[in-house]
Fold this sequence. Notes:
The chain is 30% helix and 28% strand. By secondary structure, it is α/β, with parallel strands linked by helices. Strand 10 (166-171), helix 4 and strand 11 (187-190) form a beta-alpha-beta unit. It is globular. InterPro entries: ADH-like_C, ADH-like_N, ER, GroES-like_sf, NAD(P)-bd_dom_sf, QOR-like, Quin_OxRdtase/zeta-crystal_CS.
Amino acid sequence: MVKAIRINSVGGPEVMEYVDVEVGDPGPGEARVRQAACGLNYIDVYFRTGAYPQPLPAGLGMEGAGVVEAVGEGVKHLKPGDRVAYAGRPTGAYAEARVMPASILVKLPESIDFETGAAMMLQGLTVQYLFRRTFPLRGGETILFHAAAGGVGLIACQWARAIGVTMIGTVGSDEKAALAKAHGCTHTINYNTENFVERVKEITGGKGVPVVYDSIGNDTFIGSLDCLSPLGMLVSFGSASGPVPPFGLNELASRGSLFVTRPTLFTHTAKRNDLEDMAADLFRMLESRKIKIDINQRYALKDVAQAHRDLEARKTTGSTILVP
């Protein structure tokens, strides 16, 4: 038996239960992983509240790192003793150990510790697909990135600086603005005291930006469109403030033939070759010290409810991990 978090109903942080579960042997295509750390991400809140439905009872968490204890039939790319990290479905990362699909596990280089591995996979791979695959940045662009002091945001700040991109980042406080700037964000906008659309137009001399990366959703969607230059792209990759409401296509036409896309990490990593290439790119960025993962919050696994409360209250910065 191992300790794990389970939910029997959807709702607030109180629905998460710290319980004993049985972890058996891996079946075909599976691996059993003893986890050293688990990642905490906003997508976990969506599953906990039912915004992203799943059959109940269920586990939570989509990211972790640890050591392979056993592999099932047909698993060729891993063996017991391998150090691994992952970000992907099915949920269930909030656990001391778990049996899971081996296809989403990648080998973790010896140069990267387990806590960093658990904290970086979902957020780091998100920045990788946003910057390399969704709207490929080549350097020299000026971009807008919402929530620049969050886990994804701080990685984006560093990645943008490393490839020669001018990043405008929105934040919720002066303290978060200083944090984002320290990580490479060129311009910061405190959305509680400034109008981000007006500031973006001021910074860009009225031109707007070619791309906006928006994980906020409802509160920022129309403003994000207003920040784009003609033929620009809004990349909506999250909805922390609630889902984007329905809108007419003329909203795009009237602003200059704009594009909108709603990508997910798991579409980009669905093919094994793509996952390995993306992870290798992320690992190179870390090993070259172009980016560093800031783990600014650590919670014991049994204290996951408080971790969720802090995350939803926007009290966290950088990455957060749960320690089994």
